[in-house]
Design goal:
Layout (H helix, E strand, L loop, with lengths): L2 H33 L6 H29 L10 H34 L1
């Protein structure tokens, strides 16, 4: 890998780091909004969630590209490692989404019982 590619790769990874910080800020803001005594402002939560999801997608794409560019050779062409790991990651993502939906359902039920 030549120095110029290393530099641009490093810059892309630094941008990913900044996006991760922003994702954490957004998540924190949404949690603060949900904890607000006056209740969450729907539009603000929706905007933060949309930005959160877009940043996650951007991070994922950039990291995937960086990993692919770092692996310039393929010693095992018929290896199923990548698809297997990809499936495992998808399963973990689904588990996480299901857990988050369950938490949201629980929170909504809590609001309905207190109202």
């Amino acid at each position: 890998m030549d120095p110029q590619n290393q530099n641009t790769s490093l810059q892309r990874l630094q941008n990913v780091e900044k996006r991760i910080v922003r994702v954490l800020e957004l998540a924190s803001s949404v949690m603060d909004e949900w904890a607000s005594p006056s209740g969450p402002r729907k539009e603000l939560v929706n905007n933060h969630c949309s930005e959160f999801m877009q940043l996650i997608k951007d991070i994922q794409v950039t990291l995937r590209e960086e990993i692919k560019s770092a692996c310039e050779y393929r010693p095992f062409e018929k290896c199923d490692y990548v698809p297997r790991i990809s499936n495992e990651i998808c399963c973990k993502k689904l588990d996480h989404v299901i857990a988050q939906l369950d938490e949201m359902k629980h929170t909504i039920e809590g609001y309905h019982t207190t109202a």
